[in-house]
């Protein structure tokens, strides 16, 4: 299987650059893996697909301002994570300007590149902490082709976001309202989504792709709820990655750490029984994960139908429920 096997054609006007006025107004494609069927619904129809002893698992990470510009606007920094306020790991554009020893000024703070890792991330040491409340922006996905707007402060967060640390939102959760969450049997885990979610697969063999690491935490209460559920419904690929990283013999072990699990066909899922997810970029690791959960041909057929039916794609777009 090759990376090209996960490509599809997408008219640019179907990329959702702004959210709908109402979170739950999205469309929802439903894919039945056993029957091989594709049907069309609204997201507000989701409760009709819930069975007794289902459990929805949500990612409660909260997106933080992670995009910074140098004072002269010539350098853009995307903070991946930080060991402490003075030591950041960043993606930098343009990277050629930021070799080891080069400095960058953000507000009154001066940072120096002290290292470059194998993925091209810059290690930056600051003389004093950068005030992210003043200088930071939400790192909206590049395919939106726009900067942060005031509405993004609310809409690029899930209604249950609480644990700060993500660079990108767990977008399958953006459709939920507080009332809908409360009405569903649910549990929470945390995965701080990193910029690797936008990183393309640049090798022909997916097995050679190096996944980014992301910090996760799954508590004992959630692990216990999963062990007693008859059907675990993962809200998004981020939840799926944590559950499959920690899963064994139909149960998960509580824990915290970092995961770089990369799920692509063929893969035998240990925990996740159903998946709610948005539509993903061509040739992306996320599309590969979804294709591993369902049949690749069925997923690509669904994407072709979504294009014909004028679904909205990506972070602020519509979703699919795979049963």
Précis, in short:
The protein has 323 residues and is α/β, with parallel strands linked by helices. The protein is built from seven helices and 19 strands. 17% of the residues lie in helices and 29% in strands.
Architecture per CATH nomenclature, i.e. the level-2 architecture of the largest domain: 3-Layer(aba) Sandwich
N-to-C series of helices and strands: EEEEEEEEEEHHEHEEHEHEEEEHHE
Instruction: Choose one word for the global shape.
Output: globular
Going by helix content, strand content and strand pairing, the class is alpha/beta
> Any idea what the CATH superfamily of the largest domain is called?
QueA-like
Major sheet strand order: 2-1-19-18-14-3-12-13-17
Distance between the termini: 24 Å
Low-confidence stretches: none
Radius of gyration of CA atoms, rounded to a whole number: 20 Å
Largest sheet: 9 strands, mixed
How does this structure look, described?
The chain has 323 residues and is α/β, with parallel strands linked by helices. It folds into two domains: 3-63 and 142-322, 3-Layer(aba) Sandwich (QueA-like); 67-135, Beta Barrel (Thrombin, subunit H). The chain is built from seven helices and 19 strands. It has a nine-stranded mixed β-sheet, with helices on one face. The chain has a six-stranded antiparallel β-sheet with strand order 5-6-7-10-9-8, with no helix packed on it. A two-stranded parallel sheet has the order 4-11. β5 and β6 form a beta hairpin. α6 packs across α7 (296-308). The longest helix has 13 residues, at 296-308. The relative contact order is 0.21. The model has no long low-confidence stretch (mean pLDDT 94).
């Amino acid at each position: 299987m090759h990376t090209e096997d996960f490509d599809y054609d997408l008219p640019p006007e179907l990329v959702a650059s702004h959210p709908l006025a109402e979170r739950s107004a999205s469309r929802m494609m439903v894919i039945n893996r056993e029957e091989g069927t594709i049907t069309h619904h609204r997201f507000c129809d989701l409760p009709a697909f819930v069975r007794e002893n289902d459990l929805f698992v949500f990612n409660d990470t909260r997106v933080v301002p992670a995009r910074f510009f140098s004072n002269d606007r010539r350098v853009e920094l995307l903070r991946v994570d930080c060991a402490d306020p003075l030591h950041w790991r960043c993606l930098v554009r343009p990277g050629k300007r930021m070799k080891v020893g080069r400095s960058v000024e953000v507000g009154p703070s001066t940072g120096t590149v002290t290292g470059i890792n194998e993925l091209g991330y810059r290690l930056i040491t600051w003389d004093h902490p950068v005030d992210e409340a003043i200088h930071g922006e939400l790192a909206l996905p590049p395919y939106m082709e726009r900067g942060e707007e005031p509405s993004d402060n609310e809409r690029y967060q899930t209604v249950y976001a609480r644990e700060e640390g993500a660079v990108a939102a767990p977008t399958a959760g953006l459709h939920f309202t507080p009332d809908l969450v409360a009405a569903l049997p649910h549990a929470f885990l945390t995965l701080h989504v990193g910029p690797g979610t936008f990183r393309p697969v640049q090798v022909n063999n997916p097995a050679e792709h190096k996944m980014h690491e992301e910090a996760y935490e799954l508590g004992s209460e959630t692990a216990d709820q999963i062990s007693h559920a008859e059907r675990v419904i993962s809200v998004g690929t981020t939840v799926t990655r944590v559950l499959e990283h920690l899963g064994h013999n139909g149960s998960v072990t509580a824990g915290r750490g970092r995961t770089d699990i990369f799920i692509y066909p063929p893969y035998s899922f240990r925990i996740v029984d159903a998946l709610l997810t948005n539509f993903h970029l061509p040739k992306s690791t996320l599309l590969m994960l979804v294709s591993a959960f369902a049949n690749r041909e069925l997923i690509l057929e669904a994407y072709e139908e979504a294009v014909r039916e004028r679904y909205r794609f990506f972070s602020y777009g519509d979703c699919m429920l795979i049963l």
